[in-house]
What does this fold into?
Amino acid sequence: MARDLTQLELLQELEPVAAANVDRHLSMAKEWHPHDYVPWDEGRNFAAMGGVDWEPGQSRLSELAKAAMITNLLTEDNLPSYHREIAENFSQDGAWGTWVGRWTAEENRHGIVMRDYLTVTRGVDPVALEQARMIHMTNGYASPKPLGEAIEASFLYSVAYVTFQELATRVSHRNTGKVCDDPIADRMLQRIAADENLHMIFYRNLCGAALDLTPDQALESISLIIQHFQMPGAGMPNFRRNGVLMAKHGIYDLRQHLEEVVTPVLKKWNVFERTDFTARGEKTREELGLFLEKLERDVVKFEEQRDRMLAREAAKAERDMATVS
Ligand SMILES: [Fe+2]
Ligand SMILES: [Fe+2]
It folds into this structure.
């Protein structure tokens, strides 16, 4: 049986792939500037500078759009933690170091532009937002490692996670843009989503190369990540409440997770068609297959519950209207 590669061996073997993908990324990435996406003429001073402080009536965003914007922004704000995770697992050497720096600089734009937009348009309470940012960043983020699982090469685990996570944030930003009901916000979030897509492609290519290099070992990390996947914002204030709201209204729900994130990536890697696994990889693939079948059943269950909940809410709203009139 082929032995597992160490973290160092993986990074060395895959460095040329990383170099080629850094070049690919740089040739595809478009330069853009956060200030071009913010309607500055809507801005005015807050009370500390003789103006008026924020109040709920100033926001044009729905409760749903607010929850989604805050969740996505706080996730972007936690960049120092993600930088640490990626830098530790990918190393700072050669193309790996170039990528870590470039990726971090690109991600920083996302938080800058979203905060500028929300502050200038008074979309959310800036004091509550700042308090939530302080709590979230102080807690930091550590990638969720399944208890009891010894991961020999954390690079594999990390690269599999960020592949799915970048695609998940792409979906979430894209759908948040649609519910903001503001073409400026939609354009800004489309711009961010395009970045997330390019990031996903980098990580997906690297993880795909790892799968070719050491199929059984890589699939074990991929399978673990899929079975324990959590959105990166876990732990932020109101994460559950906002997550439920976003799932309820199709910004990021279980079907999107399965059909727009997990399935297309596994397809790209040919996970269910490839013939280079040994018995160990076959066993992992079988477990993964069973997990995905269960996820499919959970999707149906979730949607049935959601339909019932939305119908109940609609009926209640109708009753309330009747009482008022
Ligand atoms: Fe981002
Ligand atoms: Fe990203």
